[in-house]
Write a sequence for this structure.
């Protein structure tokens, strides 16, 4: 079902939704950007229709709505262990096609990998519903078309901002009822970005002989292991588990998990001082291959969704896209020589 | 939905110091592990640690834990009767069906003996299952030797080479790295080999066996990587498209040699 809504109509629709849902989407925080005088665009609570940001990529991904940066797993009280209760409101997330595709990548790790689903992720995830924000064109550095993530499924509705009005494609309730109430029926066909200025060619296969290639050595000097690329990536899912004892009551504490990054020192440290990938070039190789090769070997799809964030946030201007294209060239050369 | 991170309490039945820094904990639990698997053991407020199951029987498992940091130090302060928390068992164990009917050689170094101790005891109790078991056990110094009582028993049942890297005066046994003694083992063509120990020990010992005409497919290793979940979620233990906590820690060497960190 398609509907055309005025900003006022869409605003009223959101107000009604807000009574039953918490709503997240791309929002702008003035003055909170990394550089002085810049804004931070990221996922946050949406209070009114004008909060939704259409003209910029968010620095961080929507994953934190259902995979919090820090999450309590267990509470301790003396010898007693209790599980935190979760009372989560039904939650709507307005997001782009790449980020919606990224959710299916997180689902693979948290729900499908290993012997059983991650119950903490699963119980949040079941309360999350998605509304697609259609992209007219990508942002600089996007390569969703190369990754096949310019299209998406799994959303309840799709929204397009067109001149002075919104077009809504309602695929499920409550959106059909809301469209009827607040909009005018209209023909709305989904539109997808069909071309990005940037093309990334993902090699079919990566030879482990390339692990030693000098390509990685360049990154060994450039990467400062800050982990920004992984924090902003919509598909990065690694975490560390740690126990803490509350300072004001040492009888009580909790076990929690916090996001971790394969780029940051300590990720692989083991007893006896042993560590792997001490070299930062090797860490970049590890991350890049997970995104475009290892994950696909395990789950049949690439992990990377081509959102372009890792490159945008890197203080050293390290380009993921260029790295993948170089790898592809090296594999092509190898194929030709073979 | 069951919470896979929720550990269950287990009472400490006994604690046996092996060396000043390695203690064996006997824990009351109904976990029935495959040899080579590990558990996550924890103490609330201190944290969790992945530890190999060094032996098991009806109603108990044993863990041999080296004191190296926060969790392991806290565990070493406990007494019989105290409670620890367990979840698991995790990972793949040794493929006993692949060994049955063949000669088996187990080369283990240092704390690497822990993940194979239960397996060796199993074969001590099931003598017909293999066409011979050879043990090649190495420790840094005589003071570092773990499982002395077990080793003494094994020496009476299996051809056993016990060696230390450095022997002080008065040490009557062998001195030298495990790798130096591989050539003393009368290898049969289809011998199965297990190599466990520190990374360099694994690397050089495997190379030595391969030099003696053993195929990679005949060798199994047990790898150790940083782990924070044991469930294939936290990502710390991943190598290429494998998770050491899921497909490992035991790997056939034909696969392990392609795992590049
Ligand atoms: C599959 C597997 C089997 C193991 N089996 C045994 C065993 O049988 N006996 C034994 O004594 N040890 C074993 N270990 C190592 C043991 O897990 C670590 O020594 C332990 O986690 C250290 O915890 P800690 O809190 O005392 O140390 P920490 O205070 O956390 O740190 C001390 C040192 O241990 C390292 N470390 C911390 N967490 C881990 C971790 N999760 N994995 C590896 N290293 C870590 C730290 O980087 C640091 O170098 C095994 C590890 C793995 C992965
Ligand atoms: S690897 Fe980079 S481009 Fe790919 S999904 Fe992650 S942040 Fe986006
Ligand atoms: S953002 Fe750039 S510098 Fe920081 S860890 Fe990632 S690649 Fe390295
Ligand atoms: S230990 Fe967490 S994924 Fe293997």
């Amino acid at each position: 079902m398609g509907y055309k809504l005025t900003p006022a109509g869409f605003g009223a629709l959101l107000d009604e939704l807000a009574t039953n849902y918490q709503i997240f989407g791309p929002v702008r925080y003035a003055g909170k950007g990394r550089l002085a005088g810049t804004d931070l665009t990221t996922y946050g609570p949406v209070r009114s229709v004008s909060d939704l940001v259409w003209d910029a990529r968010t620095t961080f991904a929507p994953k934190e709505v259902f995979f919090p940066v820090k999450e309590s797993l267990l509470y301790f009280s003396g010898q007693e262990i209790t599980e935190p209760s979760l009372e989560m409101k039904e939650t709507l997330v307005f997001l782009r096609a790449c980020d919606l595709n990224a959710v299916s990548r997180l689902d693979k790790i948290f729900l499908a990998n290993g012997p059983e689903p991650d119950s903490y992720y699963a119980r949040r995830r079941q309360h999350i519903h998605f509304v697609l924000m259609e992209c007219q064109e990508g942002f600089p550095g996007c390569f969703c078309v190369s990754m096949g993530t310019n299209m998406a499924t799994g959303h309840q509705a799709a929204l397009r901002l067109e001149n002075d009005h919104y077009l809504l494609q309602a695929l499920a309730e409550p959106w059909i009822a809301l469209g009827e109430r607040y909009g005018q029926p209209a023909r709305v066909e989904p539109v997808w970005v069909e071309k990005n200025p940037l093309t990334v060619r993902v090699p079919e296969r990566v030879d482990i002989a390339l692990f030693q290639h000098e390509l990685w050595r360049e990154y060994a000097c450039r990467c400062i292991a800050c982990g920004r690329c992984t924090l902003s990536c919509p598909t990065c899912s690694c975490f560390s588990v740690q126990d803490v004892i509350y300072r004001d009551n040492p009888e009580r504490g909790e076990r929690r998990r916090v996001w971790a990054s394969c780029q940051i020192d300590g990720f692989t440290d083991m007893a006896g001082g042993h560590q792997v990938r001490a070299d930062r070039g090797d860490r970049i190789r590890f991350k890049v291959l997970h995104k475009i090769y290892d994950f696909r070997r395990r789950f049949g799809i690439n992990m990377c969704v081509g959102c372009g964030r890792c490159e945008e946030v890197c203080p050293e201007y390290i380009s993921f896209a260029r790295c993948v294209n170089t790898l592809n060239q090296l594999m092509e050369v190898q194929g030709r020589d073979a | 939905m069951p919470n896979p991170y929720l550990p269950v309490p287990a009472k400490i039945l006994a604690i046996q110091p092996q060396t000043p820094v390695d203690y064996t904990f006997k824990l009351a639990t109904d976990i029935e592990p495959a040899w080579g698997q590990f558990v996550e053991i924890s103490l609330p407020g201190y944290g969790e640690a992945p530890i190999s199951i060094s032996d098991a029987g009806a109603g108990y498992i044993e863990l041999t834990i080296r004191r190296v940091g926060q969790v392991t130090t806290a565990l070493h302060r406990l007494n019989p009767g105290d409670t620890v928390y367990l979840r698991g068992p995790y990972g793949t164990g040794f493929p006993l069906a692949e060994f049955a009917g063949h000669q088996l050689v187990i080369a283990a170094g240092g704390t690497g003996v822990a993940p194979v101790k239960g397996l060796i005891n199993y074969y001590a109790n099931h003598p017909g299952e293999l066409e011979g078991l050879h043990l090649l056990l190495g420790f840094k110094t005589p003071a570092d030797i773990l499982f002395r009582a077990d080793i003494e028993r094994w020496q009476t049942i299996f051809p056993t080479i016990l060696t230390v890297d450095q022997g002080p005066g008065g040490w009557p046994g062998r001195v030298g790295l495990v790798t130096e003694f591989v050539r003393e083992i009368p290898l049969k063509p289809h011998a199965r080999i297990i190599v466990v120990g520190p990374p360099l020990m694994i690397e050089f010992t495997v190379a030595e066996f391969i030099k003696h005409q053993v195929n990679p497919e005949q060798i199994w290793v047990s790898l150790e990587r940083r782990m924070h979940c044991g469930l294939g979620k936290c990502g710390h233990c991943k190598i290429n498209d494998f998770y050491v906590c899921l497909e490992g820690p035991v790997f056939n060497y034909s696969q392990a040699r392609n795992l590049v960190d």
